[in-house]
Amino acid sequence: MLPNVPKMHHSIITRFGRRRGRILLATGFMAIVLTVVMMFSLRDRFVPEDRSWPAYSDPPTLVYRREDLQRIWEWEVAAGHYPSGQKIPETVGLTTPPINPALPPRKSSTIPSRFRPPSVTSTHGIGAKRVYLDVQSKPPNVAYPPRPLSGSVADMDVVMEHCDFSQNKYVRDCLEVLRLGGGLDNGARVRRGKMDEWKYIYVEDGELQNSSHTVPQVNPALALKSQGIADPNAGFVKKRNADWEPHVYFPPPPKYISHHDRPAACEESPHLFHMFWTGPFTDKPYLALLSFLYTQNVGLHLDPEHDDPTVCRPKFWLWINPGPAASVPNPTAMRDMFEQLKSNPWASPFLHPRFKDVIQFKLWNTTEQLDGIPELKDEWRDLRDSLFNSGGVVEKVPQRAESSTTTAADGSDAEGVTKPANEEDDKVNRVGSKSPSSYDRLSVILSDMARFVLCHRFGGIYLDADTILLRDWEELWGWKGAFAYRWSRLERYNTAVLKLNKGSAIGTFLFRTALKNGLDFHPMTVSRYTKDAALEPLLLRLPDALFDAAWLNTEDFQRERPPQPYFTEFGDFFFTPREKSAAPHALGFNGFFKGAYSYHFHNFWWQPFDATRNWPDLGPRFINGERIARSQADAKQAVQTADRSTEFPEDVVADDKRDLDWSMVVKRTFEAYIRGETPNMYGEWLKW
């Protein structure tokens, strides 16, 4: 902010007169000039030129020695969880290349030994040959894109080459590569020229090379001694006031199974999507589940008795915490949960028998889940006071709330005693976020931990509930490593999408490290865990273009070449700006970040996707639930307009919003598939 000089001059002249005012202004100006000159002269006199000012850095989080970090690297590589040619950080200090069954062999290095780094930075590939696919629709079936080939794998090295923001790659260009390389430009390919470098999906062809599938044993002390380093942990900084973790030893890694060997691979590593939800079921998890049915290869287009046993069908496990985050479920919580789901119009359609093999509702119990983590079960109770820790900020929970039973949806406890309104809406008793002013922070913090718990216990991919799937994830399942994605412009994780292998070494590291750091699972803190331990490549930070393509634009980056659609803020999904409002209806689902795997709309829990038709519009098969939801929506509208009429007129197009928002178009597209009016995005019709 700068002073308004003309106004200041006028005020001083008016108050002190022309002559005295000018003298006062001149004196003030000279005083400012002399002050600045004096400051610079004193700096030159008292501050040495070579003075280096300390930069702020986060406190260290590391509790593992180099020797244990090497074991983690060796175990993960041997298990096939590092199908990448990217270098291992030199600070790890490996002396023998780990055997990598997920990477094909490559030519031996011709670099003279004297020029090689003192520690090993590459793995020894013994994997099958990779055949990169030209995925395209074939005439005459060009109306819809083809399903990804079962057993296909995404080469994340290629994806990073075209999508990494750190290398100045644009989201727009990344989505084009993902779109063309995945065959999503069905019948509309206008890009000409050879596009081999854009092929990022491959299948493994052949068998592993003969090799003793043994993790090399490294003596870190001897390795470092040969490098002239006395301290075996040199280069790593231990967490202050913390002891080193006891040496960690892992069981033999699971035998690597090629993703092309579908039945065995599916049995060992089922394709499980996890999602965590607190409070009454709303249109947010409803749309997430619809997007799952619309995009994933769940086999609903086939008769159940004719399903292909060689295809690994994904499943969706929706974990529901029925009460406040700090409450304990009562003995009848499971029964109560299903009773509430049956009576909820947004949830009841997914209890239909047709979906029983692909969508399952699970009851979340914090105590049971933490006791199911071997790395935590004996010690987590010692940290109950810091259980709700997010980024080092601990939310204190009164003891009474910790020991309370589950709260019902009407605000009463298990004994039917209704709480006062102000107590019901405090941070401890909130069940879901109803508005920006009543944000359920405790449940959000609990979900930060829940995603790691679920993926470590059961394996799979966790999705935040504000996520919409946009395409088949087959090749992401094929990539055996762990991943999250980038926090917009920052080199940090966002764990709104998180993939971990069941019982992995990197999972053990994360839980033991979090335990020594107050059970903090905020993604920014997790970024520090892996960075301090040189394990970042084992939890790959994928570009946000794959899962959150609007994020950079909302933070004022890449606006000169944005993707389609162009959002300057996340609210544009729900309130599409008037000057851009022709696009949703004209382009439809195919024009919504095509190429990305999902879209993250960042909260907005309280904003309906379709304010005009705020009910599940799934047709006659689910008409009872629709009537309940329509009655509730119309009753609310009647209260707002003081209209007490109980008769609901037939829908007419004139009642619809003239310019449809993106959220409305996406919701109505998914619902049309369930009603049987349109196939899914791959041209498959739902069979009941």
TrEMBL record:
- Keyword check for Nucleus: no
What's an example Gene Ontology biological process for this entry?
A: maturation of SSU-rRNA from tricistronic rRNA transcript (SSU-rRNA, 5.8S rRNA, LSU-rRNA)
InterPro entries reported in the protein's UniProt record: GlycoTrfase_DXD_sugar-bd_CS (IPR007577), Nucleotide-diphossugar_trans (IPR029044), WD_repeat_DCAF13/WDSOF1 (IPR051733)
Q: Which UniProt keywords apply?
A: Membrane, Transmembrane, Transmembrane helix
Q: What is the top-level taxon of the source organism?
A: Eukaryota
| Record family assignment | Belongs to the glycosyltransferase 32 family.
Q: What is this protein called?
A: Glycosyltransferase family 32 protein
